[in-house]
User: What shape does this take?
Amino acid sequence: MRKITTAFLFLLLLFHNSNSYAKNYSESKIVSETGDCNKNEPCLSIVIKSLKLDKTIKNNSKINEYIKNEALSMFEPEKIVSKEISEAVEKIKKEHKELYKEKNSSPVLGMWSYMFNSELIYQSKDYVTIKIDEDTFTGGAHPNHFVVYTTFDLKTGKILKLNDLTSKLPLILQKGEKIFRDNNEMKLGTKLNDYGFWFENNKFRLTENFGITNSSIIFFYNNYDIAPYSMGSYEVVLDRKLFNKISP
Assistant: This one.
């Protein structure tokens, strides 16, 4: 009986630790639909899922402001005017209605959609990584999809850059290029841009769009970052132990 009780307590403690950050944020959701896209008519679909970190996380206000501004910039890419996401949503609904109020308006051009999802994928006493997924379509050849990883230093509230992770960048680049080439079946010694990529001077680079996890650093290249839209997005995942300037 003692063994069973000890094992149970261990599992309970493990479960508690793995969920110790589960109450540190709330989620809000805005869903708005006008028209019926399934009927091939002018329509507008908006789905916004936004995080709000609570005061138990250091510099939570800076991180919350960042998340809100990322959502606002999806609606107002040139200059953010709205103070709240709900205000930006109402402006877009009004703009869409005014542009496509005529029944003879082009159905395809009038099929607008906005999707924004933010999630906390990593948290420790020192860092928080937020992942944001965005999908937009307001007419044109294709929708736009972006994944944005942002890692915050909780002590300062600042966004980490690649140089904040390592003092051994040449080694990291070498390992990153090998993984990138292996993932895309590119032989060593061949030129990267011969495969359709856009690396400056054919030199591999790691993107500043990265996120920390328990065991790795994820580097994500969105459409157009290093290749044409038709080639899609790319990801390089490196062992976190390689990065000597970030704490365990």
The radius of gyration is 22 Å. The chain has four helices and eight strands. Residues 2-18 form the longest helix (17 residues). Residues 1-20 have pLDDT under 50 and may be disordered.
